[in-house]
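Lab notebook, bench 4. The sequencing result for the construct came back, and we need a structural model before the next group meeting so we can plan mutations. Quick request posted to the team channel:

Model the 3D structure of this chain.
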Amino acid sequence: MDLENREKAENKVLLLYFMSKVRIPVSNMQLTRIMLENRYMNYFLLQQSVHEMQQDKLILSETKDDLDYYSLSDEGEKMLEMFIDIVPLGIRSRLDHNIDAIRSVMRLETSVVAEYTLENEDEYEVKCRILEDFKPLIDIRLSVGSRDDARSICKNWKTHAKEIYPEVIAVLLGKDKESQ
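Done. Here's the predicted structure in token form:
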């Protein structure tokens, strides 16, 4: 096997290995961030590998909230079992060591969502949500007058959503914070 084909095969098996270890659906953005931050592969090889693995039915793709999420297929599991040894042991060990932290970050990223869109010249719509198993626990939409306000709300929601949610529920249920 020439060097280029070996690198492609190693990248695909690494992606299969990662998906088998993380055990939750992974968005393309998350997969890209993790692979690039850890210098496992470059962006173009990653995207090519993901595309080819989808075509070969080694990974499954599911769209939720306008994002594609990937997970390991049965065929992918079989392929991983056959070729796991082409991924260097050091890379597998490093991934094994970090997988719990990676999974926690991924869960948090998919559970607290904040984004904004330009509605017209002087109005932005901000969407703030908390999801549990991709089902909304809370979904708030606001209109604000500036991009800075929209960005600030998104940033603060991502930082404080877990504190805000119980307070909103308490207010809506008519309960005092002190009596909780």
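Residues 111-173 form one domain.
Will bring this to the meeting.
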